[in-house]
């Protein structure tokens, strides 16, 4: 059962007296700034006092003591398996891949919908306003449609990438006819400016040439952005290449292509990514747990567009962007020295670089006039941020998700005063345990779980 629509209306807002960390290189950081939002659009960012009185219905917020940031952008997240959290662990047969294979086939439509809503609710509380829903368990047209509906119902910006069902045989193509129909069912005018659609392909290391070439050709014929995991090595001894030069030689890389992980990329792989304008989405926490060290410094130094992602809630992780940024800085300092990544570059990866990865650089990722109003308000007086020197260094090195006091997506206030504003979002969180338990029981009855 899906909930009635309860997405809050857009609000016209005037935020006064805020410290604006705009992530716009022309504006930088602004003290005592005013940010104006009308009909979901940022219409002014200024240090001048607002002219005249606000219009009727406009909400004016005294932002003294608050920091405003652009919303975080997550560029690779398997929303469909979010209800597997709590079933994955270190015991035999309880690793991520075993659990995913065992429980994946037993997801019903309600599970796909509520798993996505649960993850998106957690995203909002963490200040993530854009999510790339990377679905590698599309078993039917309805599965894909309910994922899109979930993201529209949640009011979170992003992309839905249509992939094959979990554990599809290597020689079996994904349902390309339904990919065509799916793209036709969800034209831009149905997506409210919040979403676009793409495809998640397995590529040449999981499928034979006749499969992956056909899938690539269909995606490009339809003009759909493509994403692909590059994680086959995992922790294999001596693995020193992702083989991305092969994709380059076949003309499969390019600005419409996103590679995920690439932890074992060689220098030649990285050069191929940079030369073709191919972006990379890194998931540092899950990569450190299961694959090795993400090559953040090497990618940046080569000029590869790099963004950040959660990957999945099923593994022992959480979409806490501030914690991820600190972990990346610590690891890169240990690996490559203190100049490898800066707090500013890390915050850029989580905002404007992520937006550019998803083709949304003109829509979100910075506090810029004309962009959509995807904003975070944080408590500048939080003890962990004081005393504050450089505000970006303070946010990256000491920030916490608990510092967030409000989250706005497309002009809609989705989180305020420690509470999700949507009843359906709160219901997604409250019902997660019961839905996970019912899923496990169905698998147990079928003999796929013990």
Task: Summarize the structure in words.
This protein has 2 domains: 110 residues, Roll (Urease, subunit C, domain 1); 286 residues, TIM Barrel (Alpha-Beta Barrel), CATH 3.20.20. The protein has 450 residues and is an alpha/beta fold. The chain contains 15 helices and 17 strands. The chain is globular and about 65 Å long. The longest helix has 17 residues. 34% of the residues lie in helices and 21% in strands. The mean pLDDT is 93. The strands form 2 sheets. Strands 1, 2, 3, 4, 5, 14, 15, 16 and 17 form a 9-stranded mixed sheet that branches. It has an 8-stranded parallel sheet with strand order 6-7-8-9-10-11-12-13.
Q: Strand tally, please?
A: 17
Portion of residues within helices: 25-40%
Going by CATH, the architecture of the largest domain would be Alpha-Beta Barrel
Distance between the terminal alpha carbons, to the nearest Å?
28 Å
Low-pLDDT sequence parts: none
What shape does the CA trace take?
globular
CATH class division of the largest domain: Alpha Beta
Determine the CATH topology of the largest domain. Answer: TIM Barrel
Q: What is the assigned CATH homologous superfamily of the largest domain?
A: Metal-dependent hydrolases
Structural domain count: 2
Main beta-sheet strand count, sense and barrel state = 9 strands, mixed
What's the gyration radius in Å? 21 Å
Proportion of beta-strand residues: 15-25%
Roughly what is the average pLDDT, rounded to an integer? 93
The DSSP helix count reads: 15
Structural class: alpha/beta
GO molecular function, one term: hydrolase activity, acting on carbon-nitrogen (but not peptide) bonds
Pfam families: Amidohydro_1
Organism: Micromonospora inyonensis
Protein name: Cytosine/adenosine deaminase
């Amino acid at each position: 059962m899906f909930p009635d629509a309860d997405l809050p209306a857009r609000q016209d807002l005037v935020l006064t007296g805020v410290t604006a960390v705009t992530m716009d290189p022309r504006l930088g950081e602004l003290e005592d700034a005013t940010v104006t939002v009308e009909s979901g659009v940022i219409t002014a960012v200024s240090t001048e006092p607002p002219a005249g009185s606000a219009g009727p219905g406009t909400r004016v917020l005294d932002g003294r003591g608050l920091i405003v940031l652009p919303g975080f952008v997550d560029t690779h997240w398997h929303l469909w398996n979010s209800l597997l959290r709590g079933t994955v662990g270190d015991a035999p047969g309880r690793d991520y891949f075993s659990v995913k294979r065992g429980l994946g086939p037993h997801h019903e439509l309600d599970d796909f919908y509520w798993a996505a809503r649960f993850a998106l609710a957690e995203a909002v509380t963490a200040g993530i306003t854009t999510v790339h829903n990377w679905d590698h368990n599309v078993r039917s047209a309805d599965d894909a449609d309910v994922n899109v509906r979930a993201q529209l119902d949640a009011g979170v910006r992003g992309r839905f990438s249509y992939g094959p069902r979990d554990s599809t045989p290597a020689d079996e193509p994904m349902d390309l006819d339904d990919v065509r129909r799916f793209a036709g069912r969800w034209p831009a005018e149905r997506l409210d400016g919040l979403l676009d659609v793409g495809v998640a392909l397995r590529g040449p290391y999981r499928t034979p040439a006749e499969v992956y070439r056909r899938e690539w050709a269909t995606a490009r014929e339809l003009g759909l952005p493509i994403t692909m995991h590059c994680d086959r090595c995992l922790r294999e001894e001596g693995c020193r290449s992702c083989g991305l030069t092969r994709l380059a030689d076949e003309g499969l890389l390019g600005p419409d292509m996103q590679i995920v992980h690439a932890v074992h990329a060689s220098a030649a792989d990285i050069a191929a990514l940079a030369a073709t304008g191919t972006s990379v989405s890194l998931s540092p926490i899950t990569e450190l747990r299961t694959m090795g060290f993400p090559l953040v410094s090497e990618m940046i130094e080569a000029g590869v567009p790099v963004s950040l992602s959660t990957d999945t809630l099923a593994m022992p992780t959480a979409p806490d962007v501030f914690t991820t940024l600190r972990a990346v800085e610590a690891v890169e300092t240990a690996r490559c020295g203190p100049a490898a990544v800066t707090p500013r570059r890390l915050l850029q990866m989580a905002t404007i670089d992520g937006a550019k990865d998803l083709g949304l650089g003109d829509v979100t990722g910075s506090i810029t006039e004309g962009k959509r109003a995807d904003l975070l308000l944080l408590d500048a007086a939080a003890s962990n941020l004081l005393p504050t020197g450089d505000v970006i260094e303070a946010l990256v090195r000491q920030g916490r998700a608990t510092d967030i006091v409000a989250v706005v997506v497309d002009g809609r206030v989705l989180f305020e005063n420690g509470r999700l504003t949507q009843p359906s979002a709160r219901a997604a969180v409250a019902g997660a345990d019961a839905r996970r338990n019912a899923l496990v029981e169905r698998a147990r009855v079928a003999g796929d779980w013990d």
